[in-house]
Structure formats: structure tokens, C-alpha cells
């Protein structure tokens, strides 16, 4: 990694960052910049429901909050107001609080796509380069899930915003090769040379937290000889929860498998009602957990699950993958046919790939895992950890981005 002198960057995000010591793809990346001598000024939102948190100002980095309406776990009216007002509120905050220094780079991510005015303001005032971390391809993902129509006014409006954001970005970092190919093929308005792979990444630990497998499983009522599949993350439309429920029903009476599902979202109650209706004995459903507690559940599991709705025409690449690889767990991707998250896992020897269009295929994939030995799964998990270290480390993302300055 190249250390740099007197480099100042601005980081805009819709993710609430309370501390750069937090553990997620954004805090880890910010911390990597700071550790390499870069001063980072972070602008992070604070939803109306949260208590006021003071800004953080230090010699190495700053975190500046901007108050927005609630946009998560709220009614659609407030969510719409919050989403549409973000750029306006952020722009005012930038003008009021951003120190009058020289800056060399502004980094921002999707979602949301409506940060155009703020990015343009920074580019004009400070002559900075702009780097978009493309984590979400909107509005096409919403069209895929029938949230609104392809020819609707909503889609036309958001598509214009998406195009403007791409056009004002000097560089666009995509999560995978399939992402890069999609953006290049579907956006003639941008120069292909500015689009590159800049993957989801984390600070890779060189140790694993210890959890007594026997005691922890026993406390949860999980048979020691069961293969434990875990899914953690959003439980919404993109995860095709009805398809997951069909899988759970198929294995309802199978004592060789146990499912742990941890998360929250619009489809959580649908899953909860299914668990109550079918009285699953081999399913543990829990709502959101802090990362350190969630990590314990991953540690005592055998394989991580990635779920994506079969209707997607855009190649998602869920960051949840990293938490599995971090704990040396192989994965099974049950997804649409356009993402490369599953095919990459198969090619690199750390997982399995199955289509969410074919229930029988998904069931057979799980059955094939149930007959594998513990050592075989551990070998695949080690492959995944190795691939994480070499390709999904924040050091990699840092080098890709810093090269542009």
C-alpha cells in the first residue's frame, strides 16, 4: 500500500457511522485510509428517531452528522420525503461545516442515487476527483421486483438521476466483473474507461473469535451432528423469502440439517408466520443482532447462505458474503442467473451455486452438502478465507482508489 502525504478526502454515505472503529465495509475502508495517513472527512446521516450524536473532529478524521427524516423501518410517506431530501440537506451541511481546506477526492456510494447536487458542488468548489462506489443498481432493481413499472414516471425520473450521477463521477467502482459488464452495456452515456472493479472489502482479521461449539449449539437446541446453514442480513423482497420458506418446508423433518436465520426487513413477519404455521423444529429465527453476537452464530455454523430473487436482471453482489468468508465458512448461493457471486464461489473452490428459479436444484444442492465431511467443508472454508485475504481486503480497495489521485 502506498502511504500519501497531506491528502484530504471527503466521504459521503447514507450509512450511519458512529465511529470509524465500527466493523462494516464503509468504516473499515475509512479506517484503512486514516491508517495510511489520509485525512478523511465523513458526512454521515442521523435519522430523526435517533438521539443527537456529536460531531467527531480529530487530527486524523472527522465525522459530521446531517439530520434527515426516517428512511428505514418507517412509513412509505416519510421514507419518500427522506430519500428525496437527502441531497438538499447534505448540500446545506457541506456548505456549513466543511472546512475550507484543499481536497483531492470525494468518495460516495449508492444507495442513494440522488447525491448529484452535492457531488457537483464539491467538484466545482474544490476541483476534486469523484469516485462512486456502486453498491446498488437502482432503479432497475426496483423494476425487476415490480415495485414500479419500466415505463412508469417513477422509473423515468430515477433513471435520469442515475444517469446524472454516473456522468458526474470520474470513476465508478463496481463490486464484480458482472457489475462492470452490466454498467458498460446499459449506459452509453459514460466512458467505459472510468468503470472498474472495486469490490466490497473489509479489514481481514488474522484471528477468529473463540466460541465453544458444543456448549453454544447445546444452548440453542441445535444437534451437534447437524449441518448448520446460516443466513444473516436483510429479509426483504430481494431475498425471495417465499422461496426460502419452500426450502425450509422440504427439510422440515430432516434431522441432518439446521437453519439459522438472522435479520430484519419487510418479509421478516412472513417468515415468522411460516415458522409458526409449520412448527419447524430445525429452524432458529432471530431478528437483528449486533455484529459481535452475530459473528458467534456464524462461527458455530457450517455454511453461509446467500439468497437473491430470481427476477433480478442486475448482478447484485451481497456484502454478506464477507462475513462468511471472514469466519472461514463455505457458502451456498441460491440466486438469480445474472449475478456472479455463486459462480465465483464455485470457480474459487469456496462454495456452491444454485438457481432460485429451480426449487429442486436448490434442494439437491443442499442435500449434496449434507453428505460432505466436516473436513471437506473446512477445506472449502479455508479457500474462502484465502480468497478474502487476497481479493476482498480494504488494502485492495484502498490501492485501487488511491491510484486515481
Q: What is the topological layout?
A:
Layout: E1 8-12, H1 25-35, E2 39-47, E3 56-57, E4 61-68, H2 76-97, E5 105-110, H3 116-126, E6 129-134, H4 140-144, H5 153-167, E7 171-174, H6 177-186, E8 195-197, H7 213-220, E9 227-234, H8 241-250, E10 257-264, H9 268-278, E11 283-286, H10 291-299, E12 303-307, H11 320-326, E13 331-335, H12 341-348, E14 351-355, H13 359-370, H14 374-391, H15 394-402
Parallel strand pairs: 1-2, 1-5, 2-4, 5-6, 6-7, 7-8, 9-10, 9-12, 10-11, 12-13, 13-14
Antiparallel strand pairs: 3-4
Helix pairs in contact: 1-15, 2-3, 8-9, 11-14
The largest β sheet comes out as: 8 strands, mixed
The proportion of residues in beta strands is: 15-25%
Quaternary assembly: single chain
| Series of H and E elements | EHEEEHEHEHHEHEHEHEHEHEHEHEHHH
- Computed Rg: 22 Å
Name given to the CATH architecture of the largest domain: 3-Layer(aba) Sandwich
Mean pLDDT, as a whole number?
A: 90
Query: What is the tally of beta strands?
Result: 14
CATH class (first level) name of the largest domain: Alpha Beta
* Span of the ends, CA to CA: 14 Å
Query: How would you name the CATH homologous superfamily of the largest domain?
Result: Glycogen Phosphorylase B
Overall structural domain count: 2
Helix content: 40-55%
Amino acid at each position: 500500500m502506498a502511504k500519501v502525504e497531506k491528502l484530504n478526502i471527503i466521504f459521503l454515505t447514507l450509512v450511519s457511522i458512529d465511529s470509524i472503529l465500527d466493523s462494516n465495509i464503509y468504516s473499515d475502508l475509512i479506517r484503512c485510509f486514516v491508517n495510511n495517513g489520509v485525512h478523511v472527512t465523513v458526512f454521515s446521516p442521523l435519522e430523526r428517531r435517533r438521539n443527537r450524536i456529536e460531531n467527531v473532529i480529530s487530527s486524523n478524521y472527522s465525522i459530521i452528522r446531517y439530520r434527515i427524516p426516517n428512511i428505514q423501518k418507517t412509513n412509505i410517506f416519510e421514507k419518500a420525503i427522506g430519500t428525496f431530501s437527502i441531497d438538499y440537506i447534505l448540500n446545506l451541511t457541506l456548505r456549513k461545516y466543511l472546512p475550507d481546506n484543499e481536497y483531492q477526492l470525494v468518495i460516495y456510494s449508492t444507495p442513494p442515487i440522488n447525491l448529484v447536487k452535492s457531488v457537483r458542488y464539491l467538484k466545482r468548489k474544490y476541483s476534486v476527483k469523484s469516485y462512486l462506489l456502486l453498491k446498488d443498481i437502482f432503479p432497475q432493481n426496483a423494476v425487476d421486483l415490480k415495485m414500479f413499472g419500466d415505463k412508469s414516471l417513477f422509473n423515468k425520473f430515477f433513471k435520469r438521476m442515475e444517469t446524472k450521477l454516473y456522468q458526474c463521477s470520474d470513476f465508478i467502482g463496481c463490486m464484480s466483473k458482472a457489475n462492470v459488464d452490466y454498467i458498460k452495456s446499459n449506459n452509453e452515456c459514460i466512458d467505459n474507461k472510468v468503470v472498474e472493479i472495486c469490490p466490497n472489502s473489509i479489514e481481514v482479521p488474522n484471528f477468529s473469535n473463540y466460541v465453544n461449539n458444543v456448549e453454544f449449539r447445546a444452548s440453542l437446541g441445535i444437534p451437534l451432528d447437524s449441518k448448520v446453514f446460516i443466513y444473516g442480513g436483510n429479509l426483504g423482497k430481494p431475498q425471495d423469502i417465499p422461496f426460502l420458506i419452500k426450502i425450509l418446508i422440504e427439510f422440515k423433518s430432516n434431522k441432518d440439517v439446521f437453519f439459522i436465520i438472522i435479520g430484519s426487513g419487510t418479509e421478516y413477519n412472513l417468515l415468522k408466520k411460516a415458522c409458526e404455521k409449520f412448527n419447524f423444529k430445525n429452524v432458529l429465527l432471530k431478528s437483528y443482532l449486533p455484529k459481535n453476537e452475530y459473528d458467534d452464530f456464524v462461527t458455530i455454523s457450517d455454511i453461509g447462505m446467500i439468497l437473491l430473487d430470481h427476477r433480478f436482471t442486475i448482478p447484485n453482489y451481497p456484502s454478506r458474503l464477507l462475513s462468511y468468508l471472514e469466519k472461514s465458512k463455505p457458502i451456498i448461493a441460491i440466486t438469480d442467473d445474472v449475478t456472479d457471486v455463486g459462480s465465483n464461489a464455485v470457480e474459487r473452490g469456496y462454495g456452491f451455486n444454485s438457481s432460485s428459479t429451480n426449487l429442486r436444484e436448490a434442494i439437491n444442492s443442499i442435500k449434496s452438502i449434507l453428505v460432505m465431511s466436516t473436513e471437506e467443508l473446512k477445506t472449502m472454508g479455508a479457500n474462502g478465507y484465502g480468497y478474502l485475504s487476497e481479493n476482498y481486503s480494504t488494502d485492495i480497495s484502498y490501492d485501487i482508489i488511491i491510484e486515481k489521485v
